[in-house]
Amino acid sequence: MLEFLRGRDVLVAGWGVSGRSLIEPLRDIGARPVVTDGGQQALAEAAELGLATATNADLLEHDALQRFALVITSPGWRPDSPVLASAVTEGIPVWGDVEFAWWVDQARIYGPVRKWLVVTGTNGKTTTTQMTHSILRAAGIPSVACGNIGLPILDALRRSPGPQVLAVELSSFQLHWAPSVRPEAGVVLNVAEDHLDWHGGLDAYAAAKARALTGRVGVVGLDDQVASALARKSKARRTVGFRIGVPADGELGVVDGKLLDRAFTKAAILAEIGDISPQGPAGVADALAAAALTRSIDVAPQFVKEGLQEHKVGPHRAAFVRELSGVNFVDDSKATNPHAARSSILAHPAVVWVAGGQLKGASVEDLVEEVREHLVGAVLFGIDAPVIAAALARHAPDVPVVKLGSGDDAVMGDPFTEIEPEAVMARAVRVAAGFAQSGDTVLLAPAAASLDMFADYTHRGRSFAAAVQALDEKDIGRSE
């Protein structure tokens, strides 16, 4: 299966976490890894480890790619990247690291073939993957959460003793580069506008997500229009759905505050809504998805309940930070697009919304129109704060809005012009606290990416939490 790589050069495109995870497996099957990366420091690090390296410019010289039996790309590399496009033109196969991991597993390089439970969707992937892993642990099944969640699949496969089941979070990028993966079960939670610049449009983005629906069981979120439509195109041998409502035959859903399985049995109660963290519709949907995946491999209902009870939401994912004078502060920095922010806001009756960053072309018009009844105030920052402010002015004109300047847009005449991101966040939190009254929630749900101001969404979340901890009671209800 992988014999064609023995004694051959294999190009590792990208020296990130996934690229590093490829080296030992390639050596274990007798291949010779060669690393390329756009950064000189990355190439220097690889060379220090004794690895052969090549610059992108070197690889684009005439016939330079012909020495390679295979190119394995990191998921972030676009298909039109010059090295990858040239490899395809020259007839050299291009795989993603997930595709390679699949074939390593199928070849039993590191023990018996594992069952893959694949989770994808625009939002909720990590929470669902963690819930799935928690249920598997409760059932006593050796398992690991891996993939886009942080641990490379190859590192999971190389563990000793090895897992029997992999709870695998996969992004649309990873799925694009992994056409051979046929999971034991796979779920598409939802599909909303995101990464459209990479994929070239929503249809291509949805098609990449649909690659999770190619194995024995496919699962789709029926409350999401695009994900639900994928059920008709599913290539899984059996496809089931889940909804936050009464389930039909072949579905999982909610009845009288209880999660109910009518897909893998006649009717089985799986858990109480109160068992689920995070609270709210998004958390319930993720729990139903995790339940569907684990029930598909015959995990008993009592272990679904136990696993969901044991699961606690990870940092920056609707995580409770603090209560002060009856106001709750919640960090959902992971809500990096409007679809995720929608679920986050709707989970609370009265929200002071802290938002902003890079929208990446996504529209916030529908979001604002839908959540406006939940908003008691909004504090905006980042490069696309004016876009969100304009949508609020159109659809929620009675909601008070403060727009803070930051970075390059600080010269636009905004009321505050702190450039340091921590200073901007501290100001945003103080202003938001001033809007809040007892019973309200100050919610960081940015609806946008973070890289215009912060290192990543975790940096943004930490800044929010630190600013919240610095508040005292006199800051509540003192709008400026």
Topology, element by element:
Elements (H helix, E strand, L loop, with lengths): L8 E5 L3 H12 L3 E5 L3 H9 L3 E2 L2 H4 L8 E6 L8 H8 L4 E3 H10 L8 E6 L4 H14 L4 E5 L5 H5 L7 E5 L2 H5 L8 E4 L7 H4 L2 H8 L7 E5 L3 H6 L7 E5 L8 E5 L2 E4 L6 E5 L8 H15 L5 H10 L8 E6 L2 E5 L6 H9 L4 E5 L9 H7 L3 E6 L4 H11 L5 E3 L17 H15 L5 E4 L12 H13 L11
Write a structural description.
With 480 residues, the chain is α/β, with parallel strands linked by helices. The chain is built from 18 helices and 20 strands. The protein has a 9-stranded mixed β-sheet. A 6-stranded mixed β-sheet has the order 15-16-20-17-18-19, with helices on both faces. Strands 3-2-1-4-5 form a 5-stranded parallel β-sheet. The longest helix is centred in the middle third of the chain and has 15 residues. It is globular. About 2% of the residues have low confidence.
- Strand content bin: 15-25%
Radius of gyration: 23 Å
Structural class: alpha/beta
How many beta-strand elements?
A: 20
Mean pLDDT over the full residue set? 92
Count of DSSP-assigned helices: 18
Largest sheet: 9 strands, mixed
Helix content: 25-40%
Core attributes:
18 helices, 20 strands, single chain, alpha/beta, 9-stranded mixed beta sheet, 6-stranded mixed beta sheet, 480 residues, 20% strand
Q: Summarize this, please?
A:
The chain is an alpha/beta fold. The chain is built from 18 helices and 20 strands.
